[in-house]
Amino acid sequence: MYLSLSDRPTTDVEPRSTGGRVSRTVVILGIVSLLTDISSESVSAILPLYLTAVVGLSPVAYGLIDGLYQGVSSLVRIAAGWLADRTDRPQPVALTGYALSAVARLGLIFAGGFGTISAAISLDRVGKGVRTAPRDAMIAASSDPAHLGRSFGVHRALDTIGATLGPLLAFVILWRIADGYDTVLVVSLGFAVLGVATMVCFVPFRTGAVRRVVPRRTRPRTKVRWRSALTPGLMRVTGVSGVLALLTVGDGFVYLALLETGGFATQWFPVLYVGTNLAYLALAVPMGRFADRAGRAKVLVLGHLPLAAAYLCAATGSGALWTTFAAVLLLGVFYAATDGTLAAVAGQLVPVTVRASGIATAQTAVALARLVAATGFGLLWYAVGPRVAMFAVCAVLLAAIPAGLAVLRRADRSSAAEPAEPVEPRGGRP
Amino acid sequence: MTWRTTAFGGVVVLVTAGMTAYALSAIAENDRRTSTATAATTTTLAQVEKGPRIVFRHTGRDAEYGHVGAVALADPGGPRALTDLSCDRVYAQDRSVSCLRTERGVVSRYRATDLAISPPGQAWREVDETDLPGLPSRTRLSPDGRLVSTTVFVNGDSYLASGFSTRTAVRRVGGASYGDLERFKLVVDGRRVAPVDRNIWGITFADDGRTFYATVATGGRTYLARGDLAERSLTTVADHVECPSLSPDGTRIAFKEADESGTRWTPAVLDLATGRRTVLTGEARSIDDQIEWLDNDTVLYGLARQGEPVSDVWALDTSTTATPRVLVPEASSPAVLR
């Protein structure tokens, strides 16, 4: 049996052609993400205050915890992707990820010292790492291939609504209850549990990659190897987005550069994150639809143009307020054009049997490259100052975009028309 | 209705009921607490300001939680005067008070307020207010009350993905700022350097109006640095020192020393002339505060009670084996006005 993109997929449960509508599973996965993000972002919003004011950690200890918060998840992502493919059951793997985060919330309520708190936060991030790739694989599996970008757009938009509601909820609680940190943690746990329950009850257990055409017992079990996910197409996309990610310096830097050039007062700093989030929220779906029409790989690469423009705003920022607004908006456009699109492209360029591994590979490469970029850009910033550093990265990024387009020229065509290379399940062909 | 829908409905009802019940009881508890007066015996500011005193942040679980209070130095466990001023961190000298606070909101704002201590008994007068770029961490005033330092924790620029970032500034009370201390000339171990990852926090002022001490961290190490406001410079004089505090006679620095994992801190004292360190091993808990001197032989620090948002101010003699004792219950951020 050959598995290819043309005779692809499908879930065991749902009909695959959705006639242009976003599939029910995608919407449910979006709602799961929404609930989970309300949970995690409401805690993120109060965590600095909670840890320093109630638990009494110092800046240094808090800094260590914050580091954990950023770093842990990319480590487990590939392993979870591989496991999802190996078992051909992304749902339970993703569910485990959501459940781990819910348990971590419970732990945080009872945690009292540095050790227990960092354990709880690491567990939460491990959960995030575990669930991301299998979930994206499920989105890909249950979407009409022609509208994949839009499906991811819908999912990311729902996800972002949760990320915006979370801090709001935390604020309302703290406004009503003076030291209501416990209440925020309990409510956060509640939303995490609702997310898990939604997943258990409404996302089919068998939302896998491949329909078992042959009854299971008679068919040799497919051996899934991570290496089979490394198709030339995926390698190209991973390479290109990895290189582009090396030139992605992080929103914090853009905002700081705007601050340095006098675009706004310090206390508005956090509002910029909110603004970027809102722009992302508004544009995720339209940008996904656009990617479906214009070619996803192309949009993935060209999505870095608004990023370059945002750098330009930060570098030239003359103190005018509009440069700040423009930069915030452009960053939102960048995320809308690239975040879901990367998963969509990566998922299309590997055999369906290893889709979660493929998505995880591309996402991990980007996450690691961004980590390197942040450190490197920090050095550059101090060496030559914010303006020159921003100009430099902007220039290199503008040069890299056409190169990336050239490398990925074929990706859109191959995912749209040509069937990908057939994969041979190990253990012999029938 | 399938079993899934039924099960989901059940979970939703249970979880929602649970969250609502918890929130309602927390609201009731909050309202009960804010309507009751403080448990501690109170007195008037006029009474306390007659003599030497300790200014602190009141942490009793009552309506005055977080308000600035004062007790007579002679009777630190006795009646306290509570003000209307609410702060996360507070420090005071004979003439001024520095208050750092968080105005919580969807986007929290952080502010530093400087107040002048008026003639005894009269309300403190606000002289300056500055926006802070992050979460309040430390504040100190120079002995003459003219200089103020603030350390905050910056959320936005933890650009090194892991690690933390502080921003420390020194200002004249009601006047100009010396700016971000990361821009000062930095000399580490005798060499002029400009590391990317430098962080500066926890200032203590000498009484000459220009010398101060601070923690400088770079490359995973922490140093004690002597600063000079006139030269805009910082020069390291010792390592493995955090949150220094100069003794009243100016000869010793009390500080906290991190263990190997960097997550537990022990109080210690450094003799500036001889470089001799005394680790105060009588305190077995992790001390996470900028230490304050009660007198030339005793240090003070705030310490949170396990699992409660209440902290107490503890006193510890500067001999190696002294045992800590509670000096001011339900208090943090102590400042001694002699």
From TrEMBL, chain A:
Transmembrane portions of the chain: 45-65, 98-121, 157-178, 184-205, 226-247, 267-287, 299-322, 328-350, 362-382, 388-408
UniProt-annotated location(s): Cell membrane
Entry GO terms, CC: plasma membrane
Chief location: membrane
Keyword Transmembrane included in the entry's annotation: yes
Pfam families in the cross-refs: MFS_1
Domain Major facilitator superfamily (MFS) profile residues, every copy: 25-412
Keywords: Membrane, Transmembrane, Transmembrane helix
Membrane topology listed for this record: Multi-pass membrane protein
GO molecular function annotation: transmembrane transporter activity
Name used for this protein in its record: MFS family permease
Annotated source species: Nocardioides panzhihuensis
Phylogenetic classification of the source organism: Bacteria, Bacillati, Actinomycetota, Actinomycetes, Propionibacteriales
From TrEMBL, chain B:
Protein name in UniProt: WD40 repeat protein
Domain of life: Bacteria
Pfam families: PD40
Classification lineage: Bacteria, Bacillati, Actinomycetota, Actinomycetes, Propionibacteriales
InterPro entries for the chain: 6-blade_b-propeller_TolB-like (IPR011042), WD40 (IPR011659)
SUPFAM superfamilies: DPP6 N-terminal domain-like
